[in-house]
Amino acid sequence: MAVNKSNIKKRSALGKGLGALLKDSPGKEKSGENNEKQNPVAGIFEVPLDEVQVNPYQPRTHFDKTALEELSDSIKVQGIIQPITVRRLADNEYQLISGERRFQASKLAGLKQIPAYVRTANDQQMLEMALIENIQRENLNALEIAHSYQRLLAECELKQEQLGDRVGKNRTTVNNYLRLLKLPPDIQAGIRDQKISMGHARALINVEDVDKQLAIFKKTVDEELSVRKVEALVKELNDGSPKKADKEKDSLDPVKKYEINKLQQKLASHFGTKVSLKSDKKDKGEIKIPFHSTSDLNRILEILELI
């Protein structure tokens, strides 16, 4: 399937450096359908923006508006430094494989045409190329990478070793990303929104109880804990014993401590004074509400609706 050169014109001002990135120089290509099938890169052309469809396999689901506008301003001054990659569907019709940020920013910049590598690919190859090129070139968050890896395994029928070779990662790294998808939705959203890092998430994966997992996650976000502190909390929880032996019998696990502290803070806020809340492993304990004068006592009794 040869490229229709009447609808797009060859870009000649890209320079030799860009051409060197291609396995087959467009200038040395032979025309004909068989040759294009053998060479996935058919050439670099100026493609009309209104003839390009967005990529349905795009792994990135969110584009930062400010960053997109900054890229658009840069394109107005510098032009497109790196061409997008498309596949030809029919005459005057192309589909984006990679480079959607450049594509969207070019539209914002008011460009009518954009330099593009024109490739041939079926749907499965399209999916694989889009996912792999975006993983390698875009600043995806850890969760987007994990979903991309999962799709490559499921939809492209790749094994983990093959996937590792495709994306330049070892099997352990690939597996660490895939394990993120086993975390509860709240924690996955925390990764997506950059409330916690990949390191935090990897530590949380080792907590089997979902409620305790969520409690440590909330503590991590509320107190902005470091990865090392989260790892220590998880280790203490999994070991089932605190560091100090003399407090072993009476100590609570870190999740219970966190819940008690949060409740203590709520009580203090409610009564407008410092409240002491204690609880043991058997869920027995006491609440102390101090008062500093008769009027202060009456205030607390009014809150309790006892007077």
From TrEMBL:
Gene3D superfamilies linked: 1.10.10.2830, 3.90.1530.30
Keyword match DNA-binding: yes
Disordered as annotated region, ranges: 17-41
Key word GTP-binding present: no
GO biological process, one term: chromosome segregation
Pfam families tied to this protein: HTH_ParB, ParB_C, ParB_N
Keywords for this protein: Chromosome partition, DNA-binding
GO MF entries: DNA binding
Start and end residues of each ParB-like N-terminal domain: 45-135
SUPFAM superfamilies registered for this protein in UniProt: KorB DNA-binding domain-like, ParB/Sulfiredoxin
Biased composition regions of type Basic and acidic residues, renumbered to the chain: 25-36
Family designation: Belongs to the ParB family.
The protein, known as: ParB-like partition protein
Lineage: Bacteria, Pseudomonadati, Bacteroidota, Cytophagia, Cytophagales
